[in-house]
Amino acid sequence: MYGISKKINSKMIWQALLLMSVIFMVFIGTAAAATVDENAAAIEKNAEDIAQNAEDIGVNAEDIGNLQTALTFMWLLLCGALVFFMHAGFSLVEIGLTRTKNTANILMKNFMTICLGIIVYWLVGWGIMYGADAAGILGTDQFMLMGAMDNATWNGWWFQMVFAATGATIVSGAMAERTDFKSYLIYTVLLVAFIYPVYGHWVWSGSGILTSGFLVDAIGETFHDFAGSSVVHSIGGYSALAGIMIVGPRIGKFKNGKAVAIPGHSLPLAFLGTLILALGWVGFNGGSTLDGNDPYANLVIVNTFLAAGAGAIMVMIITWMKTGKPDPSLTANGMLAGLVAITAPCGSVANWAAVVIGIIAGIVVYAGVMFNENTLKLDDPVGAVAVHGYCGTWGVISVGIFALGQGDGSMLADAAYTAAGAGLLYGGTAQFMIQVVGAILSIVWAFVISFIVFKIIDAIIGLRVSEEDEIAGLDVVEHGISAYPEFAILKE
Amino acid sequence: MMKIEAIIRPTKIHEVKDALDEAGFESITVTDVKGRGKQKGVMQQWRGRKYCVDLLPKIKMEMVVDDDNVDKIVDIIMKVAATGSIGDGKIFITPVTKIIRIRTGETDGEAL
Question: Which residues form the Ammonium transporter AmtB-like domain (chain A) (predicted)?
Answer without folding.
Answer: 74-484
